[in-house]
Amino acid sequence: MNSITGSRFHLKHHLSAAALTILLLLLAVSSARAAQEPTKQPRIQLAILLDTSSSMDGLIEQTRNQLWQVVNEFSRSTRNGVKPSLEIAVYEYGNDSLPQQNGFIRRVTDLTGELDQVSEALFSLTTNGGSEYCGFVIDRAVRELQWSTSSNDIKTIFIAGNEPFTQGPVPYSEAIARAKAKGITVNTIHAGAYDEGANTGWKDGALLAGGDYMSIDHNYQVAQIVAPQDQRIAELNQQLNKTYIPYGSAGAAKAERQMEQDSRTEGVSLGLLAKRVQSKVSGFYNNANWDLVDALESGDVELSTIEEEALPEPMQNMSDPEKKKYIQENAEQRRKIQQEIVELSKQRDDYVAQEKVKTAEAEVSTIDKAVISAVKKIGQEKGFETGGR
User: Fold this and answer.
1) How many distinct structural domains can be found in the chain?
2) What is the C-alpha separation between 108 and 49, in angstroms, rounded?
3) I need a labelling partner for 97 at 20 to 30 A (CA). Which of 41, 166, 309, 328 fits?
4) Angle, CA 238 vertex, CA 236 and CA 244 arms, to 5°
5) Which of 54, 114, 61 shows the shortest CA–CA distance to 85?
6) From CA 259, how far away is CA 312, in angstroms rounded?
7) DSSP state letters, 53-70
């Protein structure tokens, strides 16, 4: 090897070693940054589009009564060990009480994590009429709602009704194409016989959307089993509500809404209230935008930034240390109550399962089963896991 060749060899060797060193340093920095960055919370987004024409009273009742069953099912899910957030939107369509120029459609709630708002929306629905424009309401939901831009999140629409899927000025094929472009799966639920829905476009709509077509008995009265634990759960729920500290201009009204939804649910049955209370102690029930305990624990708000007049009256004359102590005491009391509710809910679930075995009723398709089944299927494709209790 002559001196020139040797020099080139050594130069090349040094450059290769330097490049390798830089590469290793870049990888180390990248790994350090990845370790520092918090794992992004996955999201489950559901838009429920309900036909509220004259024959759909049973569908509305089923949906509002089974909301908490759906929430409790998804509260056990994770992706890569991280629990997701849940957002639900509600639309009604096919009601002659709604303006014709809007396609007899109303957005009742945007996508929201405030589950009391969703419950309130479902209890507000009434039936009348009408003209059911499936393509139109799907199109509205796709365009109007703030859908996640992540392909890893669950984004899905459930549309339920009983009239032909083909009605209205917006072809369902166009609406579904727009949904698919945003990564939104559309599932169709025919309130009636399976073959009737298949022959009137409901099955074809689901196939185009890559979703599931299901039929349900919308007039089936879902039995709400009352368990021995229910009375104590109801008592604990009253104690739980006292740990909420409303703040801001809407705080008092939202605290009142919380109790109103408890009352309405209990009015259906004590067993249904127990399901709702189980949801209230899950990670999905977060009221950081009006409750100081949730707000401070989530890091959404700093106590020092809240104006005195935005605080509840008992806190307005407190010193900063007294305020922090007051909030901490409520947080600790809440955790204690929640733990007892969790334990009683497990016992309740076991009791209800045993009672269902005793009665041995035939399996009936209802809207909660349709929603849970479809979302689980989508979730499996996106790496979500549903854990046990």
Assistant:
1) 2
2) 10
3) 166
4) 105
5) 114
6) 17
7) STT-HHHHHHHHHHHHHH
Closest CA to 84 of 155, 145, 142: 155
228-229-231-232 Cα dihedral, nearest 10 degrees = 140
The predicted structure's pLDDT at residue 28? 57
d(CA 135, CA 245): 43
Rounded to whole angstroms, the Cα distance separating 107 from 49 reads: 9
Residue 357 is predicted with a pLDDT of: 85
Strands 85-93 and 105-112: antiparallel
Q: Please name which of 117, 118, 98 lies closest in space to residue 53, comparing C-alpha atoms.
A: 98
Alpha-carbon span 164 to 132, nearest angstrom: 8
In order along the chain (389 residues), what is the average pLDDT of each group of 10 residues?
51 54 57 53 96 93 94 93 96 94 95 96 92 96 97 96 95 97 96 95 95 93 89 98 96 97 96 97 94 92 91 92 96 98 97 85 84 93 77
Residue 82 carries which DSSP code?
B
Mapping DSSP onto H, E and C, the string for 88-113 reads EEEEEECCCCCCHHHCCEEEEEEEEC
User: Is 377 domain-assigned?
Assistant: yes
Torsion of CA 353, 354, 360, 364, to 10 degrees: -10
Q: Are residues 330 and 378 in the same domain?
A: no
The boundaries of the domain holding residue 149 are 43-223+364-386
Are 271 and 225 in contact by the 8 Å Cβ rule? The answer is yes
- 139: domain CATH number is 3.40.50.410
Query: pLDDT tens for residues 307-317?
Result: 999 999 999 99
pLDDT of res. 9: 46
Same domain? For 87 and 135 the reply is: yes
Are 181 and 309 members of one domain?
A: no
Between CA 178 and CA 140 the distance in angstroms is: 10
Same domain, 375 and 263: no
Among 118, 121, 122, 116, CA closest to 260: 116
DSSP 246-274: B-STTHHHHHHHHHHHHHHHHHH-HHHHH
Residues 120, 257 contacting (CB under 8 angstroms): yes
pLDDT value, residue 45: 97
Q: pTM value?
A: 0.86
Could you tell me if 264 and 164 lie in one domain?
no
